[in-house]
Input
Amino acid sequence: MEESITFSEVAKLVSGKLVRGEADASIVGVHTLAHAQQQHATFLANMKYKSDLLTTQAGLVFLSAKIEVPKDTSFAAMQVADPYVAFTLLQRYFHPLPRSSGIIHASAVIDETATVASHVQIDANVSIAKGVSIGSGSMIGAGCVLEEGVRIGNHCLIHPRVTLARDTQLGDRVIIQSGAVIGSDGFGFAWTGDEFLKIPQVGRVALEDDVEIGANTCIDRGAIEDTVIKAGAKLDNLIQVAHGVEIGYKTVIAGQAGIAGSTVIGNGCQMGAQSGVAGHLKLADGTIVGAKAGVIGNTKEPGMISGFPAVPHRQWLRASGMFDRLPEIWKKMRKLSDGEK
Amino acid sequence: MEESITFSEVAKLVSGKLVRGEADASIVGVHTLAHAQQQHATFLANMKYKSDLLTTQAGLVFLSAKIEVPKDTSFAAMQVADPYVAFTLLQRYFHPLPRSSGIIHASAVIDETATVASHVQIDANVSIAKGVSIGSGSMIGAGCVLEEGVRIGNHCLIHPRVTLARDTQLGDRVIIQSGAVIGSDGFGFAWTGDEFLKIPQVGRVALEDDVEIGANTCIDRGAIEDTVIKAGAKLDNLIQVAHGVEIGYKTVIAGQAGIAGSTVIGNGCQMGAQSGVAGHLKLADGTIVGAKAGVIGNTKEPGMISGFPAVPHRQWLRASGMFDRLPEIWKKMRKLSDGEK
Amino acid sequence: MEESITFSEVAKLVSGKLVRGEADASIVGVHTLAHAQQQHATFLANMKYKSDLLTTQAGLVFLSAKIEVPKDTSFAAMQVADPYVAFTLLQRYFHPLPRSSGIIHASAVIDETATVASHVQIDANVSIAKGVSIGSGSMIGAGCVLEEGVRIGNHCLIHPRVTLARDTQLGDRVIIQSGAVIGSDGFGFAWTGDEFLKIPQVGRVALEDDVEIGANTCIDRGAIEDTVIKAGAKLDNLIQVAHGVEIGYKTVIAGQAGIAGSTVIGNGCQMGAQSGVAGHLKLADGTIVGAKAGVIGNTKEPGMISGFPAVPHRQWLRASGMFDRLPEIWKKMRKLSDGEK
Output
């Protein structure tokens, strides 16, 4: 039996205004413009898909005030401030985030000195070492390893097979996807003239409230000072965060990006996929690093940079648009400078 | 005791024709041109190694019809349509793919509602949740985690420490290398003006028949619709496949490549190592993406593209060959335009 | 109770000379210039932080002979050959590398044919298959999987959730960070005209003495011959090493780099973050590959290369400095060649 919600309830949930359709009609789920049926709500957020409005089978569509409801369509239409947020709120209504079952699986290995709050879920084959503490409502997926001294706040969701190394600190509502490694040793060696001597990595990793970490992402512990990911930051999969890095509030980082040691990324920044930032740098709040960019200098103000070495985005865009004219430039140049040799 | 195979049996196995040597001679294994001994077969597939033909100690060499058997050599020679395929077939004769022992280890945690077919192998410390189904002859390596609703076909080989998240669907003969994460949450958030609101990721991942996934590769579940990897596609290690991506039949993707959300990669495509494709794109069947390329537009026909932003490969090759002449171009240019200011 | 060490003991430990301060004063730890207090030693290695000398609260500072002790400061100063090495030695005094507890956890699954030397530590939920051998003093973290025939030397440290696939060979004092996969199948397929036929990967991986491997790094087993990482090499996180690669003595490789099949990296090389080397190449001893570089040809002598395709570093640096002048060059060029059409 699917749950359903009436349009008037939807309007309340998403702070929307029904501009066409019956308030007591209802939907049972959310789908894309292209695949929604009469029983679904859908949304227009990306203008690329605007023409799908004309053919969608959806029962209800979230639209911004700027978009007129097209003639010759029959779907119910709801005006909202941000259709993507409205979709998200409705999707969260139908699919709430997972909640702890409060069950600790018999196969979990939990040290007797660990502190486990009420209503914590610990799945099969988890290993929890000395002095670990886990806050109320948190969930630890199968096969996770929590080393000595790890501290987890309330309502965290640690997916299966995550490593939280020695002394890693998590705030509340932190989500970590499967396979991530938090607190691995930083890559620190001193060259003695004969060998690379390993430098003990004695800092920790701290993930503040509402941080999310993607699958198989690695966050190294600090060499001396902690590696810190501030509240509300979101990291995608397969990202490398080196020792001593600090990532600011609500900064988002796309897949396969990398940040070298001791660099400070500001608040509200964005890093594109496969981008990299060199070590010991400081990126200003609001810096946007383009996909595949390589940043080798500080930024002092918000704005987008791209390329390697990274330059202001528009500059990079213009230059890379010219790149494949290089052979033509060379040819013309030789023609022009003929006789000068 | 090593197994051996006669040249006439080899000829049958690889559809080859013995053009020099004794049909009842035999070999016991396969090795490279450089390291093969009298008891080994070898092959010439990469012309880079052609000169090794003159010095190889191999007892038998697979050659294409185009290659003449060199004078002053004594190895037995077998003409085949494709020496690399012949080598592969012989190697598979000596080293068949692993087969299920049919043994379920006592330490595996298997929910009572799971359906496990006959002759399935489940190794130590595996965790299998509610409603999982595993087809006949499949093998689940140690430490794997299969979440609720996962369905695995027949004769799949899941190496140790793989996560198959909720509702992941596998066809037959799927191979997944160790550490891969299939079905992690896609990277989806709606910015409310104040925070990034997590969008429930309710699509699944489907890996069709004969797909192979590399070590520590991540494939995110769809936000709404499924992420799909079609039959016969092969993905290398440390690849990022975002939510809602579709990868076509028999497409091959090299290590550390990444594909952003909702992009459709056609059939028979190739992606080079460390390449990336932006989101919401469509690559035509037969598209070849060069190593490290960054694709930001659709392709409409087969062919190779390279660079970032990616352009036709030859164009990129010519332009990048000129890249380090930029300082010279600049200097000449200034000289030529002197006096114009 | 913290341990303390007198300045005269420190001088002995790091082969230093106390040039200011009392030999019987002492410190209890190490910290950065910016954060050290009276009870800490610190060091000046990166000249970027030189001005911090004037304000540091540290009790003792390691300096090279080239640096004068600034007036108007009061810290004790010790001259050393290399401040970074001195810091490392002192840090290792306070934080020795972990040592085996000699305890084998009851939940570990160990095949009866495995050989485990004296004083080996094996943590919870480890799985050890047939014929594995583990040398004295080694530590195997929780959730690790050691497949058939794995051989581990003495005093190795395998962090949690590492896979050592069939027949992987480790020397002494090897360190592997969490999530790494050693010995996954190489990415080898033969195209038959209709499908990609998997080539059995029958080589192994050998990690020699004092090798360190980063978190979630993948090292594929050889197709025919072994993949070999020579003594003293250090690899960071999320690196891809393909089948049949050889990495030389004391070579260091930064995060997210990748090396394609059969390539030989020389001794004492360095690879920057997110760099890549194509297959079947040979890099000379002492080659330095810049961050994000893509190497598609052999190198014959030591030195740094950058860019894609990689060229000598200075050449790349000069050219990329000109890159964003391309639009200007194009404009001038058109102006100059006006009337020529």
